[in-house]
Structures are given as structure tokens and as C-alpha cells.
Amino acid sequence: MKKTIIGLLAFTLSMNALAQGDVYERSKTYEWPTDPQVVNKLHQWQDLKFGVLMHWGIYSVPGIVESWSICDEDWITRDTTKTYQQYKDWYWGLADKFNPTQFNPDQWAAAMKDAGMKYMIFTTKHHDGFCMYDSKYTDFSIAHHAFKDNPKRDVLKYVLESFRKQNFMIGTYFSKPDWHCQDYWWDVYPTKKGRNVNYDIKKWPWRWERYKQFTYNQMNEILSNYGKVDILWLDGGWVCKENHQDIDMPKIAEMARKDQPGLIMVDRTIHGPYENYQTPERTIPETQLDYPWESCIPLTNDWGWVPRPTWKSPEKVINTLIEIVAKGGNLVLGVGPTPEGIIQPEAVSRLKAIGQWLKANGKAIYSTTITPHYHDGNVWFTASKDKKTLYAIYMAKEGEKLPTTISWQGNLPKGSVRLVSTGKNLKTTSKNGQVTVVVPTGMKQQSFALEFKKK
To answer: Are the C-beta atoms of 32 and 292 separated by less than 8 Å?
Structure first.
């Protein structure tokens, strides 16, 4: 018993460390798409600013990091009371325990709308290969295991319907690698190549061709059977032509945009025509960028649900959103539903607080654009689309008592400076290129936005 407890404790700690450690680099350059419908959809998406990314799968049952614990790379540790094969068998077996009888996608969509989110990305399949929809090409899906007799077993259908009712832009996450598929990780060989395909594609070309067709078929399923989709968010950047794992992205893109004209494709970290926006993970670029990008950051330290999470405060998320928007990006916040199928109260309360701030200050966030002078101390700047109005957003540190005045250099106002939340004109002075604004008494101790005409 003592050995088991120690092993499980080590496993839990390693999963927490793993969840914090896997950070994607972004591509160094950007290539604008040439399809006018895609460009138009990208501009619509850029105006939304704030979305949700939901990881939900068999890893949610024990509340561990998604998929990665079955990978054999050196940096991964797992339950030391099991052999590697025993661990994989246990992990695959979670499919027979994943029975979210409280599954309530309407509650999810309502919570995200209350947060002020405008778009969503739902994980249809992570690297472990477990499908969150009823795929014709594998039985390893929620529709064929413990949840198979539930009338909502085709989970993807009901999730997308719920978010469409709340007027969200719709996105689907799909993993290019599939570690459950015998045409990617073939049991004839050990998984000695870690996250990569574990056999020699040159030696077994017919098997790789079969995997390519399998991947194509599954992407076609999620894009042709579930109504309008705006974003196809592809993960697993090591599955690419440059890494000798070519899945024929031109063919996939042709199919995808035939099913969904104007579809935004996000082939993460693979520079080129299918990375329509960049996705720095758990990070914010150091400087402003003038092309489409999105920081993906979880509400806890983990993408999916875990039993004892470390939560980010609403203030932390708000301030992260302020910086990202001032630098020209969007924020997609990771929120993982529980294994029972709901968004837990601790998440709901944080999301609601974020939404309340956006109701008061969202004019300085939504449908804004960048301005050359975008940051001075604790003040961040955005601009209206016509560039005639500037917004100065004071970023209050957590627990900080608001100062009596705030100041910044440059971005001089023409006329009055108003509080976005109330429209109240504030006492303002400008001298030698520095603006000073008197902060009203009685304000909430949190970040706030001002608006003024550009001089």
C-alpha cells in the first residue's frame, strides 16, 4: 500500500509538472492566405478577441494530463507501480469508465457566454486517438464505450449545437498524430520514436498511405457532418512533410474548404498556407505583431480537468487579455469540463467575473485594432477600427489599491478623456507629452479602460 501511495503521488506531481512544461514555439514568419473568403473570416475572428478551448476525453476520468503520459519520451514520468505496457492498457481502459451522465453542453455555452467569450474550439480527438464524436473509422470513441447508450453519445453534435445557439464562432481541434491507431503506432514495433510514427515509412509505405487516408476521412467527418465550422485547429506539428510524415495537407485543405468555404486552418507551428494564424502556447509574444495570432492559455495549470487545480484569478486572465489585445492577438482560454460533463462551479464563478469586467470595459477590447504606441508602464493602448478613438487600459496588479492618478507618455488626447464603463469625463492634464488622469473615487480595485479622441 505504501509503495502504491508513493507511486501515485509521484505520478500526480509529474503530471502537474508535465502540464506546465510542454510549450509550443510559434513560427518565425507568417504567410497571408490568398483566398478572399479566408481573409474575411480571419478579420471577423480577429475582432472577437476572446474564446475558449475545451479539452475533454478519457484523461478527464482520473484528471491527468491529456495523452502525454502514454508517450515514451525521456522527459515523461508516470505511475512507477506499472510497466509501460500495463500503464498503456490502463489508459486505454479509461474508455470503459468515461460515462459523463451529467453532460450538459448548454451549461458550457452559457458559462462561456457569461465570460464574454465569442468563439470556441472543441477537442474532437487528442493524440491518444479517442474520438469525441461517432466516427465511422474507429470504435475508439465516446459513442462506442461506456457512454454508448446515452442519446447524446455523439457528443460533438450537441456541443456545437449549444454554442451555435449562443452565436459563437465554431472551431474544432483535431490531432494529426493518433497514438491508438495501428497505422501510426504499430504494435509490431516498440514506441521507441516517442511522439512520432514508430515504423519506417519507407519500408512500409502502404501502411502510411492507409494512415493518411484514415486522417483525411476523420477530418472530412468532422467538417461535413456537423454543420458550419469556422476554424480547423490542427495539433501535433511534428506530423508534417518537413519531418517526413507527410499527410498531404493540400489535399486536406481542398476537401476542408469544399465542405466549409472560407475555413480558417490552423496547422500549428507549420509555417505556410495552412497556418492561417499562429498559436503561441502558454506565452505572450514579447512585442506587438501585425498578423493574426492567438495565445492559448489554460484557466488552471492544465488543459483538461484535474481534481486539485491551481486556478488563475479573474484579474490574472483579464490582465492577460489586455496585454494580448494591445499586442494584436486573441486569447483562447483553456477550460476543461469535469468527467461527469459539466463546467465546475469554481470555473463558472471565475468566468462570470471576467465577463462582468468585459461588460463594463469591452469597448476597449472587442473589434479594436493595434496602435503603434501600445504600452507605457501599467497602461496599454488599443484603437477603434477607424483609428479615430484610442483606448487606454490601466492594468491593475492583483491586490493593488488603485492610484489617485494615472499617467502615460504619448497618445495625447484631443478633448475629454472618458471612463469606458460609465462614459464619465475625467479630469485630465497634458504637459510636455505626458498625460495625467485623475482616477474617480469609489471604483472597483481592478483594471479599467478610458477612451478619448486621438490628437
So the answer is: no
